[in-house]
Fold each of these.
Amino acid sequence: NAGVTQTPKFQVLKTGQSMTLQCAQDMNHNSMYWYRQDPGMGLRLIYYSASEGTTDKGEVPNGYNVSRLNKREFSLRLESAAPSQTSVYFCASSQEGLAGYNEQFFGPGTRLTVL
Amino acid sequence: DAKTTQPNSMESNEEEPVHLPCNHSTISGTDYIHWYRQLPSQGPEYVIHGLTSNVNNRMASLAIAEDRKSSTLILHRATLRDAAVYYCMGRRGYGQNFVFGPGTRLSVLP
């Protein structure tokens, strides 16, 4: 099993450009997440998808859109990149258990720089 | 909403126990407390979780206060490979809107 995979690993954009970060998981998990981690900071949830066909906003959704393409794939789109979106982006997946038990499996991250 | 606070950094000598605290004073009575760690240049990895009682697994132990407003992650014998940032995690509101604490950077001295 590959677990959670993300593409690309690195990306440099100019202000105003758009791009889509891809994430896939092969663990048959229902839930998927996108987080961002700014230099020296903790993780902040951007969007999550509790199941195929549903998405919800997290703590910092502005400037992003997401698509839960199918059970395996969850993409994150930046329509008009800004320097403030320079960050490392992590995708994660989990299978919800009883009463909110939630072991999340994380991908290796995409390091994005916006000039 | 779950608001979590953690010390910014801690230091330990190799082979000694380490106690990493987290305050989660607003956690819901039915929410699990989760801990993750992040090694340099990697994504976070799950460490342990618990609800009301103390928990043990091969990586660590989790001690949960009786009022559930705080918890302590215990590494029984720190190794150099345990040097990482340790995060406790709670839930913000409802659903799967999870919030990570600010993290504690653990340094392990040989």
Amino acid sequence: DAGVTQSPTHLIKTRGQHVTLRCSPISGHKSVSWYQQVLGQGPQFIFQYYEKEERGRGNFPDRFSARQFPNYSSELNVNALLLGDSALYLCASSLDGPRGDVYGYTFGSGTRLTVV
Amino acid sequence: KNQVEQSPQSLIILEGKNCTLQCNYTVSPFSNLRWYKQDTGRGPVSLTIMTFSENTKSNGRYTATLDADTKQSSLHITASQLSDSASYICVVTDYSGGGADGLTFGKGTHLIIQP
């Protein structure tokens, strides 16, 4: 059974450009969360979607947006990229609802975004 | 403000030795505590998840403990292997619900196993 899959694995963009990152949760998982992880830090919460509705939003500017599709896959969009957006972007899905209290979260391998 | 502090920041031990990583938290109200292993450039992988009533949980050579009174947790690694080299992240969940995911992440302990 496939785990959480993210694409692309690596990406290099120029300041001011737009980027779209994609995530496919584990089959049967209806919750998807997005995190930004800067080198040497723990993941920072960006968005959470459950049953195609936004359930939570972290402290990120409006340049960041996301959506969840009927098949529960998700996209994270970032507009007007800044150098500081360079990070590992992680997607996580859970089986038991938006908080994953029982089974926890399963993370994808992430997308490494470099903004130059 | 909810916080999770991990120590040490980094640790180097010889292959075959044991080690213990610490996690102190100020998260309220507490729901559960999780330990994740993260290899460089990869996503975190769950090791254990413990609720308020659980004191110890093992996963192979990994044993996590939780003291909900002192708000401390530890992750003990027995007979370390080179593949244990990674960052270990402590994550505490609260019951805050709406607006955020309710998870507070530590910065992790970077563990290096030397042959």
